[in-house]
């Protein structure tokens, strides 16, 4: 048995969202079951994580690290509009807090001495910081894919990324990530996702929302980031409300908000049923008739339930995901097309089963991805004698940064 298994990422459990937690915790439990020594670290993770999780905390810092001024100069040279005393103060304060986080991660990694760290996201601050700290300690970092892949997921910070399926690996390769840094394992969070009895699922879903027993289209919204996504979410809302009004007596049109979305995009949409986290994702996908989105992970997840998938993408919108180009979704490019396609769907009925080949292209090892990820982690553990100590590296970095 390896002397120290792996340290699961502080970034992995810093989020309360299921997309991160439900991916990492099953792997943690599988490694424990195999007898691998594991340290699970939670940085503001949700209630209900295993009681053995180590809470990550660090002390606020007021001293600005030496590297911060140079970083500000470089940033403002790239974006002159940012120049200003108030923004500079905010930036330097953020640098001080980041240095405090990195210092505490240095101490944590020195105390635990992990051979490998596994995280669920490097878009979150904790996950990115842990990956950087692990590199300074000579510790291998692995990253689990946590959602639909887009250009801002690059460059890849971790040493290796464990992708959901060949389609995701192809996307990252096309974005310039070397294939040697990608391992296709599948998604632990999706192992249990599969359809149940169709009629019962549909009746239970509409009953939970107090809706009539009609065909139901669920649109998964991406109004959480109007800077990145531009006007596309607002235009989607307009299309949906117009089509819901057109088929008011024949269709339930439900919008499920992104977890970080306030719903303001839909305030004037009186013909839509807007929901957030209830019913749960699996029940929603199981009970609806077809799904749509701009760039939500549901463009993948709907395949597990055999649902027709519509991706909204008009000419001129930001290029957020290209599932429709890969044959994984049907493109809807205008309100008129949405109206016509909805009419066709209602007239012809919705019949589609799970396409096993398509699912395997997106979700490798479905049903056993947790074991596949654990296999990768366990195969990369080294005996303690073969592992470099990170203290000298970490000390050198702290001296270089002035921490």
Short note summarizing the structure:
The chain is an alpha/beta fold and 403 residues long.
* Helix and strand pattern: EHEEHHEHEEHEHEHEEHEHEEHHHH
Specify the helix fraction band: 25-40%
How big a fraction of the residues is strand?
5-15%
Please state the structural category. alpha/beta
Low-confidence stretches: 1-12, 390-403
What is the end-to-end distance? 36 Å
What is the CATH superfamily label of the largest domain? Glycogen Phosphorylase B
Describe this structure in words.
- There is one protein chain.
- The chain is of the alpha/beta class.
- The chain folds into 2 domains: 6-190 and 364-401, Rossmann fold (3-Layer(aba) Sandwich); 198-353, Glycogen Phosphorylase B (Rossmann fold).
- 39% of the residues lie in helices and 12% in strands.
- It contains 13 helices and 13 strands.
- The protein starts with 5 loop residues before the first strand and ends with a helix.
- Mean pLDDT is 88; it is low at 1-12 and 390-403.
Write the layout of secondary structure elements.
Elements: E1 6-8, H1 18-33, E2 38-42, E3 54-55, H2 67-78, H3 85-112, E4 116-119, H4 125-136, E5 140-144, E6 160-163, H5 166-174, E7 182-184, H6 198-209, E8 216-220, H7 232-246, E9 252-256, E10 273-275, H8 281-287, E11 290-293, H9 298-301, E12 309-312, E13 330-332, H10 335-348, H11 356-362, H12 369-379, H13 391-401
Parallel strand pairs: 1-2, 1-4, 2-3, 4-5, 5-6, 6-7, 8-9, 8-11, 9-10, 11-12, 12-13
């Amino acid at each position: 048995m390896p002397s120290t298994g792996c340290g699961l990422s502080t970034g992995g459990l810093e989020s309360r969202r299921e997309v991160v937690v439900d991916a990492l915790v099953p792997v943690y439990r599988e490694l424990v079951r195999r007898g691998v020594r594991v340290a699970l670290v939670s940085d503001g993770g949700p209630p209900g994580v295993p009681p053995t999780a180590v809470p990550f905390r660090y002390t606020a810092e007021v001293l600005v690290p030496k590297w911060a001024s140079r970083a500000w100069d470089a940033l403002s040279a790239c974006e002159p509009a940012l120049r200003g005393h108030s923004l500079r103060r905010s930036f330097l304060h953020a640098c001080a807090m980041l240095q405090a986080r990195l210092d505490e991660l240095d101490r944590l990694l020195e105390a635990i001495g992990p051979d490998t760290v596994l995280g669920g996201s490097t878009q979150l601050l904790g996950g990115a910081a842990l990956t950087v700290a692990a590199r300074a300690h000579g510790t291998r970092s692995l990253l689990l894919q946590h959602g639909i892949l887009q250009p801002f997921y690059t460059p890849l910070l971790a040493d290796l990324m464990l992708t959901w399926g060949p389609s995701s690996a192809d996307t990252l390769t096309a974005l310039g990530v070397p294939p040697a840094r990608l391992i296709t394992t599948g998604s632990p969070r999706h192992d249990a996702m599969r359809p149940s009895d169709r009629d019962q699922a549909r009746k239970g879903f509409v009953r939970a929302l107090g809706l009539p027993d009609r065909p139901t289209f669920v649109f998964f919204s991406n109004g959480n980031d109007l800077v990145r996504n531009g006007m596309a979410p607002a235009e989607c809302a307009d299309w949906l409300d117009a089509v819901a009004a057109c088929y008011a007596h024949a269709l339930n049109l439900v919008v499920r908000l992104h977890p970080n979305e306030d719903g303001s995009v839909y305030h004037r949409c009186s013909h839509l049923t807007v929901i957030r986290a209830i019913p749960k994702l699996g029940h929603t996908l199981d009970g609806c008739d077809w799904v749509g989105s701009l760039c939500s992970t549901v463009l993948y997840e709907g395949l597990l339930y055999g649902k027709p998938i519509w991706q909204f993408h008009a000419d001129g919108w930001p290029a957020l995901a290209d599932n429709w180009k890969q044959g994984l979704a049907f493109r809807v490019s205008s309100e008129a097309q949405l109206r016509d396609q909805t009419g066709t769907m209602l007239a012809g009925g919705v019949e589609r089963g799970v396409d096993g080949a398509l699912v395997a292209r997106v979700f490798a090892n479905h049903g056993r991805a947790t074991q596949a990820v654990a296999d990768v982690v366990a195969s990369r553990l080294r005996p303690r004698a073969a592992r470099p100590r990170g203290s000298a590296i970490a000390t050198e970095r702290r001296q270089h940064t002035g921490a």
